[in-house]
Amino acid sequence: MSDIDQEHRRRGALYGRRKGKPLRAGQAERFDTLLPRLKIDLTTPAPDDLRTLFGAPVDEFRLEIGFGGGEHLLHEAEQNPKTGFIGVEPFLNGMAKALAGIDERKIPNIRLFDNDAALLLDWLPPGCLSRVDLLYPDPWPKKRQFKRRFVSPENLKKIVRALKSGGEFRFASDIESYVEWTLAHVRAQPALQWTAEKADDWRVAWAGWPGTRYEAKAIRETRTPAYLIFRKI
Description:
single chain, alpha/beta, Rossmann fold, 7 strands, transferase, S-adenosyl-L-methionine, tRNA_methyltr_TrmB_bact, tRNA processing, tRNA_(Gua-N-7)_MeTrfase_Trmb
């Protein structure tokens, strides 16, 4: 077990290394060939200039925590070629889908991390990110599981540290209790300010939002998504 995996286990990670369907040959090959080129290595110090992590010229940086199948991550990277994207997803099948999309669409401005996002947030230099996205995270719906939700006082401090002044933390969920949980925790974090001024600011998806398969399922099942934006002040 690597030092990163040991730290992941010691901290009681909010995400586990889970795999669903067996990987196909092409997916497994990308894990062996493409992922090592794109994966961020936390065993080395973070560079002062994150541009050195990317093979494409970029001038700002965003982080997506738990990108699922990668629909949003890949869309945003293609729409914003001058932005460097870091995507975090510990689930192997989700990572496999993202690797396939990056490979097939030749997207140069994405780097990946396949472990606990809290470890990556600790590694990043302060004030380096213009945005952090947490979209439809695991809601851990039972009360005894709430402590495993990614939104927590500790992780919000990590997000604030990594965001530059004026940077945004974006959160989307269809689980009402998690939305209320997030609003309550952010209100207790003075460095983050909710930007909503009217109901449509959280009821209507953000401009340019491509949607995700999970969101479509939630809407089919009559759960109403909420879209929250918090700005670092």
